[in-house]
Specification:
228 residues; mainly alpha; 11 helices; globular
Length: 228
């Protein structure tokens, strides 16, 4: 990887990149209220489960978009893999915010065309892949970023929700590093299959029903710290 690509990857994965993800907990807020996340051990279990389900799906979508697959077909595939309306709405809101940040950071005719064609936004993982492509990154880079985001968001949220020691949250992420790499490999292989065949049915469709249920419940809370 060249130094410019490495810098772009670090910037895209940085939690300070203005893509709006800091306002979302990835299901952690509902899990904390239900007592499923109480400390580092349960946070690790939550993040690992998310990584191998919604994280895998997001990583494959991002890799496929970065590889040049049809973003609108990928967006339809993302819709089909996101049964909860609250999560579909969240994915599109995050996609709009990421696209706005991406166009300012890595100007691209492809990103401009997507913004014009879909003003309501595409699913965030698809936009993530397009952003990685505009930044000169590879599909594997996009997959790794998505895999990391699937765990990094809940871990950061848990620090705020539980007053968890940030060192403990970071240790949870470090402990999942090998699993993130494995998920990125599987996602990239799936993206290669989609690119070769044009069949989005080759994408993973791993599900996390409890995340879907709690996302709908969370959306109806009158008071909440995170948007999702």
């Amino acid at each position: 990887m060249t130094s410019s690509r490495r810098a772009a990857l670090l910037l895209l994965a940085d939690g300070r990149f203005p893509a709006g993800a800091h306002a979302h907990s990835g299901g952690a807020e509902a899990a904390v209220r239900a007592g499923r996340i109480q400390g580092p051990a349960t946070l690790a279990a939550f993040c690992e489960g998310r990584l191998h389900t919604t994280g895998l799906v997001a990583a494959a979508l991002a890799a496929a978009a970065c590889a040049g697959c049809d973003p609108y077909a990928l967006d339809a595939a993302a819709d089909a893999r996101t049964p909860a309306p609250a999560l579909r709405d969240t994915a599109r809101k995050l996609g709009r915010q990421l696209l706005r940040a991406a166009r300012a950071t890595w100007p691209s005719p492809e990103l401009d065309a997507v913004a014009a064609a879909r003003p309501r936004g595409l699913h965030q993982p698809v936009v993530l892949g397009l952003t990685a492509r505009a930044a000169g990154l590879a599909p594997r880079d996009a997959a790794q970023t998505a895999a990391y985001e699937s765990c990094g968001g809940p871990a950061t949220a848990a620090v705020r929700l539980l007053s968890l020691d940030p060192f403990d949250a970071t240790a949870v992420l470090a402990g999942l590093a090998d699993a993130m790499d494995s998920v990125a490999e599987r996602a990239t292989a799936a993206a290669d299959a989609v690119r070769a065949t044009g069949d989005t049915g080759r994408l993973p469709a791993a599900s996390a029903p409890l995340l879907d249920i709690t996302a709908q419940q969370h959306a109806a809370w009158p008071v909440r710290l995170f948007a999702s």
